[in-house]
Write a structure and sequence with these properties.
about 25% strand, flat, three-stranded antiparallel β-sheet, alpha+beta, about 280 residues, six-stranded mixed β-sheet
């Protein structure tokens, strides 16, 4: 399913998921090592930012989240036809409703993978389903996750895809990015222009000769990114599936937009404390 602004659920025995174990099960997809590195590699961030430094004009007060004591969840199952892995961080596991959402997503993904493996015609080719969620922003009132996942069904080498989730702590449910803004329709043109420029710059950086049109916001997966382990949102990560920002053969694309004053002002007062201009 193509990514959307609104988060959508992809609706054996659990075992410890290790990087080595995942790589062993992905012998037909050696490229997946990149997923583990890209999804998890980032410069160490400070643990938190002082709430007073993040106060925004017109923002309603929101408590700064605390560090989660819940352990990360890792699920791994293996059969003669399928290697299945699914994981998410302690920040998500510590929220009961979100933990259930992710477990339902994991169960749905496994059912789909089992059915696909059972229908597989190529004997001796193991199927792979791997999905790994990481925390992108642990901000006042909001938790943002991004997942890179891959499905291998014994055919052509697959392309890793991204999915995102924004969790509203007070409503205790997923929230779509446009809902964070007071008037998304009015703000969309200026945001879309920044998106177009960001993806054009990324195509140039990758020396792409693609003449694809600017990817519309509705076809992107958007993650909120904090500048600290706990702190306000300072950046947007925009993920485009293959064929959205460039030809399919160029794979997925990503662009980043620093949060500016205009975006902070566009955020609804009840969420504004979760955002701050990029440093």
């Amino acid at each position: 399913m193509r990514g959307h602004l609104a988060p959508t659920a992809v609706s054996g025995k659990d075992s410890e998921l290790t990087e080595a174990g995942m790589l062993d099960g992905l012998k037909y997809c050696g490229f997946f090592a990149v997923i583990l590195l890209v999804a998890g590699c980032s410069s160490p961030a400070p643990e938190s930012e002082a709430p007073a430094a993040n106060a925004q004009e017109g923002a309603l007060p929101l408590p700064l989240p605390t560090m989660s004591s819940a352990p990360a969840v890792s699920i791994a199952r293996s059969t003669d036809r399928l290697d299945y892995t699914y994981s998410y961080p302690g920040e998500a596991a510590g929220i009961p409703a979100l933990d259930k959402w992710l477990r339902d997503d994991a169960a749905a993904g496994e059912r789909e993978a089992v059915l696909a493996a059972g229908r597989g015609e190529e004997k001796g080719r193991r199927h792979v389903y791997a999905k790994r969620w990481t925390a992108q922003a642990n901000a006042p009132g909001l938790l943002s996750l991004a997942a890179q996942y891959v499905r291998f069904t014994g055919g052509q080498e697959p392309v890793p895809l991204w999915r995102t989730m924004i969790w509203d702590r007070q409503a205790d449910q997923p929230i779509a990015f446009p809902t964070l803004l007071s008037d998304f329709t009015s703000f969309k043109p200026s945001l879309q222009q920044r998106v177009c420029e960001a993806f054009a710059a990324e195509r140039k950086r990758r020396e792409s000769e693609a003449k694809e049109p600017c990817p519309p916001l509705e076809q992107l997966n958007i993650a909120l990114v904090s500048g600290a382990v706990i702190g306000p949102v300072r950046m947007l990560r925009l993920f485009a599936d293959p064929g959205v920002a460039a030809p399919v053969e160029e794979g997925s694309y990503e662009a980043r937009l620093p949060v500016d004053d205009a975006l902070v002002r566009a955020v609804r007062p009840e969420y504004r404390a979760a955002f701050a201009p990029a440093l």
